[in-house]
User: What shape does this take?
Amino acid sequence: MTSKLIHLISCLAILLFLGCKVQHLANVSTQYIDLNHEEASNQEIENLISPYRKELNKEMNTIVGTISEDLIKARPNSNLGNWFSDLLEEAAKEVFKDSKIDFTIHNYGGLRLSSIAAGEINKGTIFELMPFDNTLVNVELDKATVQQLLDKIADYGGWPISKSLEFRIQDSVAVDILINNKPLEDRIYYVAMPDYVANGGNSCYFLKDAKRENSGVYIRHVIIDKLLALKDKGQDSYIDPKARIKSTEQ
Assistant: This one.
């Protein structure tokens, strides 16, 4: 078998075993690879892929933590959103240890599982929850831009937000905002979020020029590391039931 064929099959194996799901694709192009007219039998291909499958399955089945109840994704609030955003805030404070973190947000669509069953969580589940290569960033926002961001979240009907932040949705805007139990003030706030949002994703174009620090670390890896640290201490990750977003539009 040629080296090109080996490389092609190896890439396919990694994609398949990571549990990648095909999304809507646009502008698809086709590339034909010259395999020098060599053909491989199904058994030859299976023999090549098998070691990758076993190793990757072992890695993805690694237990990283435990949760005490079923997690369900919903808006404006959910226990999955609370669990995830609180873990992310704790992790962000460790990653950006020389900076302040006022609160953490994550776009609703960036979490790709609608539920996670109670019990042990493996690494593969976290990859399914966050299949995108989004890194964790700490963004500096003034009062007006925080209001604009929370208005955007309100207009979407709610995103996962950490317990440091509370507000109410009224006429699709954020009101009665509390950050660490204090009303929104005329100062700079430090907000941890995915680089996708910080770079203008989900119509957050107003964040693109904001000063930020990019950790360069994928959010899923930050979450895995935090869960493993709790596991090493013999602790389950805490699930705060409190609603952070109240809505008059429910």
